[in-house]
Amino acid sequence: MIKVGIIGATGYAGGELVRILMGHKEAEIVWYGSRSYIDQKYADVYRNMFQIVDAKCMDDNIEALADQVDVIFTATPQGFLASVINENILGKTKIVDLSADFRIKDVKVYEKWYGIEHKSPQFIEEAVYGLCEVNRDKVKGARLIANPGCYTTCSILTAYPLAKEGIIDMRTLIVDAKSGTSGAGRGAKVPNLFCEVNENMKAYGVASHRHTPEIEEQLGYASGENVTISFTPHLVPMNRGILATEYATLKKDVTGEEVKAIYDKYYADEKFVRVLGEGVCPETKWVEGSNYVDIGFKLDPRTNRIVMMGAIDNLVKGAAGQAVQNMNLLFGLPESEGLELVPMFP
Ligand SMILES: NC(=O)C1=CN([C@@H]2O[C@H](COP(=O)(O)OP(=O)(O)OC[C@H]3O[C@@H](n4cnc5c(N)ncnc54)[C@H](OP(=O)(O)O)[C@@H]3O)[C@@H](O)[C@H]2O)C=CC1
Ligand SMILES: CC(=O)N[C@@H](CCC(=O)OP(=O)(O)O)C(=O)O
């Protein structure tokens, strides 16, 4: 059994990790880390875990945790892991970090977009960006995984094959994305109150959202070019789900069959990526509660553009599901262990 500790188990991403790991045959959670609920029963924080989890919440002492577990998930705010990580901890246990602390290779870019000083830049280089479908081999040998962001997982996987094959002009890429409110976490914030979100839709972080450089960096590796995108996130009145609609000018004349063949070249063998036919639009409902990414596209000859669309569950493929997928790779387990989650509907 893999012994697992979760720091931030009481947040939405941490709670989803607990839910998924309850169905994992090879993993056992031994530490439910919290900041606000220490010594309280975990099932009193999340009553869906009543009679399922008997443990009490622990603190966020990562040094003590590292002595007891094989892997630590940090589902904590930006800056937490960077402020506590050290060589001693990494010598004892693997870490899958759900925050952005080790996702961006250029520390100056991280500090500019996140507005905080990076406390452990010495570990950025070795951290592996845990987008499993792209970096599977690197993940297997890593000590520290930077689990990708939710908007970024969806946005990158949706455009990746076409960026890699040079089909789209990367200077023209626009990513328009919508997220359910769980993406903002469980902490009380006025913009996320029911009356602010219900029956409402709003853009935020326009031309300034912190996921912009993460998407640019990864699609830059794929295309071999410096990529600058327009990225606009929106908050929509749903609990879960991200839909990314992406627009780019085509560099070549291609047919729908050719585009589909390109997607299939990269994803036909990928269990968690479902490529829909041309003109079939993915919906967040069809992936809810699952680790799937659904991808569709439509050519628009009138504008010489392609519209690419991707849908994920932000808490699963966008966070906890992908984190477990990374854990499975780290420990040589079948990649889908614990992740055979059938989307729920309606
Ligand atoms: N929500 C989502 O869809 C996604 C989230 N993520 C990332 O996962 C991480 C957690 O996000 P999310 O679950 O949404 O956030 P939440 O606000 O729901 O949860 C935050 C968690 O971190 C703990 N925590 C808060 N402050 C500290 C601190 N200073 N030191 C230690 N622990 C602390 C909280 O403990 P307590 O509750 O006990 O106070 C809680 O368990 C973030 O980095 C986020 O960006 C990534 C992808 C998607
Ligand atoms: C709706 C909402 O507020 N979403 C969050 C992104 C989700 C998230 O937690 O970001 P990471 O994936 O980088 O960890 C935001 O816009 O900051």
TrEMBL record:
It is found in: Cytoplasm. Its EC number is 1.2.1.38. One of its GO terms (biological process) is L-arginine biosynthetic process. Pathway: Amino-acid biosynthesis; L-arginine biosynthesis; N(2)-acetyl-L-ornithine from L-glutamate: step 3/4. It catalyses: N-acetyl-L-glutamate 5-semialdehyde + phosphate + NADP(+) = N-acetyl-L-glutamyl 5-phosphate + NADPH + H(+). The active site is at residue 150. PROSITE patterns: ARGC. InterPro entries: AGPR (IPR050085), AGPR_AS (IPR023013), AGPR_dimerisation_dom (IPR058924), AGPR_type-1 (IPR000706), NAD(P)-bd_dom_sf (IPR036291), Semialdehyde_DH_NAD-bd (IPR000534). CDD domains: AGPR_1_C, AGPR_1_N. PANTHER family: N-ACETYL-GAMMA-GLUTAMYL-PHOSPHATE REDUCTASE, CHLOROPLASTIC-RELATED, N-ACETYL-GAMMA-GLUTAMYL-PHOSPHATE REDUCTASE, CHLOROPLASTIC-RELATED-RELATED. Catalyzes the NADPH-dependent reduction of N-acetyl-5-glutamyl phosphate to yield N-acetyl-L-glutamate 5-semialdehyde. This is N-acetyl-gamma-glutamyl-phosphate reductase. It comes from Dorea formicigenerans ATCC 27755.
